[in-house]
Task: inverse folding
């Protein structure tokens, strides 16, 4: 490692001190110092630690779950519709699970009935959006003139 300008080592003194302790004495030439630092001693201690929030983790997983759609050879409009349909299916499954949990809960009948009614309205709304997105997909597929292979790709992506 070659140091041409002064460097502050206040931020990670444990890393700097362990690296310098393991290093041989610096060889000085004119006004430049050269310090040999063994790679193993530097790599043994992490310098930066990154943590993601729950939202960040969800977004990173979200990108992975649509990777198969993104990597397909389909037109962009069809890819976007497939992603929307996948998201709506996930939301529908989530609401149905919530509905099932509320129906089995031990809350009083009036509260449970109000919650069930609200969730049924949400399920109905999501189902309508899913039907609309599916119709848009069929129209986009017809308008795009997809090959048989691309149509098969759409079918397989719809089922996954």
Result:
């Amino acid at each position: 490692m070659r140091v041409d300008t002064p460097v502050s080592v206040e931020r990670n003194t444990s890393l700097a001190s362990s690296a310098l302790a393991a290093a041989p004495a610096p060889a000085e030439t004119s006004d430049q110092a050269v310090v040999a630092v063994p790679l193993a001693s530097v790599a043994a201690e992490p310098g930066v630690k990154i943590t993601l929030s729950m939202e960040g983790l969800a977004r990173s997983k979200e990108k992975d779950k649509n990777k198969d759609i993104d990597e397909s050879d389909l037109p962009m409009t069809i890819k976007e519709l497939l992603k929307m349909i996948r998201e709506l299916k996930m939301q529908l499954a989530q609401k149905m699970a919530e509905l099932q949990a509320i129906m089995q809960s031990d809350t009083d009948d009036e509260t449970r009935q109000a919650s069930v009614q609200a969730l049924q309205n949400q399920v109905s709304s999501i189902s309508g959006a899913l039907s609309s997105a599916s119709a848009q997909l069929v129209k986009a597929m017809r308008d795009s003139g997809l090959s048989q292979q691309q149509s098969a790709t759409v079918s397989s992506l719809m089922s996954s």
